[in-house]
Amino acid sequence: MIRVLLADDDPLVRTGLKMMLRGADGIEVVGEAADGAEVAAAVREHAPDVVLMDIRMPVMDGLAATRELTRRGAQAPQVIVLTTFDEHGLVLEAMRAGAAGYLVKHAVPEEIVEAVRRAARGEPALSPSAARALIRHAAGGPDDRAEHARQRLASLTEREREVAEAVAEGLSNTDIGTRLHLSLGTVKAHLSSALAKLDLDNRVQLALLTHDAHPRP
């Protein structure tokens, strides 16, 4: 059972999401928070696997709450930013804050449910528009960011770099294992090692860093 926490200052939005998710097999809504400032305590109380996080909240916004959660390291739940704001800069800021996904609130219910399941598996969960924003970011011209990213990736072993490049292509752990002829456990071990060396929180941040290192002309 995937345990989900809803963080949104609009009670109607929380009610709608709760009704939708309760109709999905294998998903349980275990708690709610009406502001980002309440999220950390709610996570400690309910131990969710996934947090659906609004961005605009009155006391602490969702990006700050996401950063606070990702500082918990391996104990942090996966965060999916769910917002009405479909902006390139916000997508990048959310990913760098440690979010595993980014969806707009007008996404169809099936897309939100699938995003929760993907995040619980440790996979990125991005709306098409968010994915396009990341592609545009990766396609930017070379600059100091690219050199900095290459220097950071140089700390990885050859196998860890291969795993990182596969993650940047959007491959799942299973697909990476097939490509590199590795067991699923070995893929996870290389991925965990790479994230630890680079001080990153999740595979989306690893994909961004890898894209930064190899910008397209």
From TrEMBL:
Modified residues (4-aspartylphosphate): 54
Response regulatory domain mapped to chain residues: 3-120
Domain HTH luxR-type residues, every copy: 149-214
Domain of life, source organism: Bacteria
UniProt entry keywords in alphabetical sequence: DNA-binding, Phosphoprotein, Transcription, Transcription regulation
PROSITE patterns: HTH_LUXR_1, HTH_LUXR_2, RESPONSE_REGULATORY
Family matches, as Pfam families: GerE, Response_reg
Record-given protein name: Response regulator transcription factor
Organism: Streptomyces endocoffeicus
